[in-house]
Amino acid sequence: MTAVRAVVPEPLLEVRDLLVRFRTHDGTIYAVNGVGFELGRGERLGLVGESGCGKSVTNLAIIRLLPKPAGRIEGGQVLFDGQDLVQLTESELREIRGRDIAMIFQDPMTSLNPVLTVEEQMIETIQAHKKQSKNEARARAVELLGMVGIPQPEKRLKAYPHQFSGGMRQRVMIAMALALQPKLMIADEPTTALDVTIQAQVLELISRLTTETGTSLVLITHDLGVVAGMTDRINVMYAGFIVETATTGDLFERPSHPYTVGLLHSMPRVDAREGEPLIPIEGRPPDMRREPTGCPFAPRCAWRVEVCWSENPSLAPLAAGERIVMTGPSASHRIACHNPPLPDEAELGRPTREGHVPAAAPEGEADELASLAAIADGVA
Amino acid sequence: MTAQPVPAVGGVAVPASTPGEDLLEVRDLKVWFPITEGMVRERHVGDVRAVDGVSFTLRRGETLGLVGESGCGKSTTGRAIVRLNRPTGGSILFDGQDISTVEGAELRRLRRRFQMIFQDPYASLDPRSTAGGTIGEPLEVHNVGTKAERREKVRDLLATVGLNPDYGNRYPHEFSGGQRQRIGVARALALDPDLIVADEPISALDVSIQAQVINLLERLQERLGLTYLFIAHDLSVVRHISDRIAVMYLGRIVELAPSRELNQRPLHPYSVALLSAVPIPDPKVERRRRRIILRGDVPSPVNPPSGCHFHTRCWLREQKGNPERCSAEIPLLRTLSTGHEVACHFAEDVDGSREQIQSTGRGAAGTVPGAAGWTAIPGAAGTGTEAYEDPLIEDGPLPDVQLIPDASMLLDMPDTRPVYPPRSDEA
Q1: What is the dihedral of CA B100, B103, B108, B113, to 10 degrees?
Q2: Taking residues B333-344, what's their average pLDDT?
Q3: Are strands A216-221 and B63-67 parallel, antiparallel or unpaired?
C-alpha cells in the first residue's frame, strides 16, 4: 500500500472540461461544470465529495452511462488511451466497457441480475469479450472467485446473488470487474453499504488486486478515511467542480481549500484528542438547479471575500507560477479559491486573521452563514 | 425554551433523580423473535436471538454509545428500552421502575420520559403533516397545555434545534436531510424527556451536516441535562459523543468501557478488530496501522456459535491454537480495571499485543502491567499528535511491548485481583 508506484508519464485517462447537464421538468441541473483531470497508468485516484457534488455523475459520464434522456454530456472530452469516448458509437463503447474499463457500484444487489446464477453472469461477461468456450470461461470464473476469497468457488458459482451476503456480493462484483484484466477500474462507493469490518476486507482486496495487476483505479467516496489509505492522489469535488487536487500525502498534510478544511474538521476521528470539538460546515449543500455564478462554496464559507460572490476561481497551483504536473507522485497541489486558509487556520478549522469578516452576500444570494447567525441570536 | 420538569400526571408524583444517579438499569435483557412455519397452524421452529442477555446501566446526564455491526442487536436493544419491542426476558429499570412488562395507559404515561430519534429523516416524518404538526403531536397526545401554549412551545422547540420558528407551517419535503433530522430531534424533545435513545441519528446525513447534528445533540444535553443512549455503527462518531461505549456482537455486549479507554486500550479481540477497521483520514497514520481482517461474515443469530459467539472469527483464539474453552464456555463480562468490563476468557492477552497497538496507529505502548493488576495508560490524556511521531512505520521494527509476564498462569488461578466497585472514583 505504501510503495510509491512508478507512473508512466502518458496518462491512461484524460478528462477535459467535462460539462454534464440534466434537463428535467424542474429545470436544468448543473451536475458537472468543467471538470478536468488526468489519471496515470497504475495510478489510484480518489474522487471525494458529498452527495450531489457530481462525483458519481463524472464517473457515469466517463463510461457514458448517464441516465437517458435527461443526462447529457454538453461539452468536453474524455480521452481514454488516446480515444475520445464522448465521440464513440454505442457498439464501440460496449467493447471498451467491461474489457478496458470495469465498474463496481455501491449496491451489489442491484448491479447483479437476481434471476441468473453467478455462473451464468460471469460466463456471459467473459464470453462477451473473449472467444472462449463455456468450459474455459467457467474455469476462469472459478479462478476469479477463488482470487477474491470466496470459499468453495465451484459450489458458490451455482448460487444466486441473494444467497450471498453483502460483502460476498461485492466480492463477486470485483471478480467480474477483474475478469478481463481491465486497464481501469472505477469503484463508486464500493463499501458504503457494508459493515466496517467487511469494508476493511473489500478495500484490502481492491487494493491488493489493483496493485498486482497494475490496474488504474478511480475510487469514488464520501469518506476521507477510505481514500487516505487507498489512493495516490485525490480530487475534492463540490457542486460539480474540482475545488482541490493534490497527492494524498499533500492533501492531508496541507488541506488548502475551505471546503476540504471544513470536511476534515466535521468528521470525528477515532484517534482524536479528548474533547476536540467538531466544526461543522454550516448551511446546506448548494441547489444544483442554479447556474453557478460566483464560487459555489461562498454561501457556506467563513473565508469568503467580496470577489467570491461574483467570480468563480479556477484551479491554480498553491505556489503561484509553478509548472503544473497533472499525475504521479509529484503532481501539483492546486486549489480553486480566492482567499485560501493559511496553514494554521486550516489546522484550527476557522479563520483567525485579524479583522476578517466573511463578505456579505449580494442581493438575491442565499447566505447560509448569516441566516444561521440570525437564528442563533434570536434564541440564545 | 427552559427545561421544565415533567408535571405530575394523574396525581402521581414523578420521582426526580439527581445527576450521576442511575437513570436506567438494563438487566439480562433478551429480545427473541420467533420463527414460525406452517400456513394454518403456525409451529414455533426457532428464534432469532437478536438480543441475548444484555446488561448495563446508564447514569443521568451520561451518554452511553452502543456500537456494533448490522445485526448485532444494538437497534433492537434501543427499541426494547423505549418499549417499541416487548422484551422476551430480563428487566429494564427506568428510574427504579421496571418498564419491561408495563402496558397500556401506564406505558403511555411513562413514554413521556423516554423518547427516540430515528435514523432516516425521510422515512420517520409524516409527509402529510407540517413540521409544526409533527413536533406538536406528542403534546396533543399527552394533553399538555392549551392550543396557544402548544403553538408557542413548538416555536420554542424549532428555535432550540436551530430552525427558523416560522418554518412550522412547512412540509417535510421542503427541508433538507439535516433540517429534517432537527425536526425529529425537536419532536423527541417536546415532552421534556429524561432519556433519549438515538438510533443512528446521523448515518443518513452528509458528512458536513453530520457535525451540525452531533453538535446540536451535545449542546442540548448540556442545556437540558439529557441522558443519551447513542446507537451507531461508526466507532469514530460514537467515540466523539459518548462517555462510555458498549461494543455488541451477535446479541451480547462484549466490552464496556469509558470512551477513551476503549479507543486506546480495547481488550476484546472483536473491539480491536473493529477499531482497526475504522479508516482514519490521515495517510500517515493509515500507513502505520494494520487492519485485522476478520474472515467471513457475522454468523446467524438463529443458531449462534456455542461458547463465545465471536470464537468462529477470532484472531486471538487462532493465535492461541484454538483453545477449547472459547467454544465450550460462555465468557461473562469481567471487570478488568475501573469501569472496564470485557467478555473474553483471554482478554489479558489482548493488552499490549501488537494487534491492540496497531489498531489505532498510535504506536504508544499502552500499558505497563503492575504487580497488583492494571495501571492507567501513562500520559493518555491529550497525547494525540505527539504519539504520531512514534517511528512505527509499516514493515519496520515494532517497539518492544511488555507483555503480562505470566498471563497463562493468571488464567489458571482464581482471580484475586482487586475488583474495583464500578465507577467509584468517577462520580
Answers
A1: -10
A2: 91
A3: unpaired
Interchain contact, B382 vs A222, CB within 8 Å: no
* Rounded-to-integer distance, Cα B66 and Cα B84, Å: 17
pLDDT the model gives residue B18: 60
pLDDT under 50: residue ranges of chain A? 1-2, 7-8, 377-380
Contacts for A92 with CB less than 8 Å, ≥ 6 apart: none
Q: Name the phi and psi angles at A140, rounded to 5.
A: -65, -40
Residue of B164, B176, B361 with shortest CB distance to A284: B176
- Tell me which residue range forms the domain holding B384: 245-412
Residue B368: what pLDDT? 30
Please say which residue of B223, B244, B265 terminates a domain: B244
- Which pLDDT does position A221 carry in this prediction? 93
Do the chains contact at A277 and B293, CB–CB below 8 Å?
no
B336 and B354 fall within a common domain = yes
Give the torsion through C-alpha atoms of B151, B153, B156, B157, to 10 deg. Answer: -110
Contacts of B73 in chain A (CB under 8 A): none
Q: Which of B222, B244, B266 is the last residue of a domain?
A: B244
| Contact across the interface for A268 and B276, Cβ inside 8 Å | no
Cα separation, B33 vs A145, whole angstroms: 35
- Count of structural domains within chain B: 2
Say yes or no: B239 and B249 in one domain.
no
Q: Does B390 touch chain A (CB under 8 A)?
A: no
Domain at B137, CATH number:
3.40.50.300
* Global ipTM: 0.84
CB A340 within 8 A of CB A353: no
Contact A270 B293 (CB under 8 A): no
Q: In this structure, is residue A19 part of a structural domain?
A: yes
Its pTM stands at: 0.82
What tens digit of pLDDT does each residue of B64-113 get? 999 998 889 999 999 999 999 899 999 999 999 999 999 899 999 999 99
Mark out the alpha helices in B26-122 (DSSP H runs).
74-81, 104-111
Distance of residue A338 Cα from the nearest chain B Cα, in angstroms: 21
Tens-place pLDDT, residues A10-24: 799 999 999 999 998
Grid cell for residue A36: 478536468
State yes or no: pLDDT of B339 exceeds 80: yes
CATH for A109: 3.40.50.300
- Residue B281 and residue A197: Cβ atoms within 8 Å? no
From CA B187, how far away is CA B125, in angstroms rounded? 10
Domain residue limits at A105: 13-231
What pLDDT, on the 0 to 100 scale, is given for residue B203? Answer: 86
Predicted confidence at residue B361, as pLDDT, reads 63
Q: Are residues B276 and B131 in the same domain?
A: no
Three-class DSSP category at A205: helix
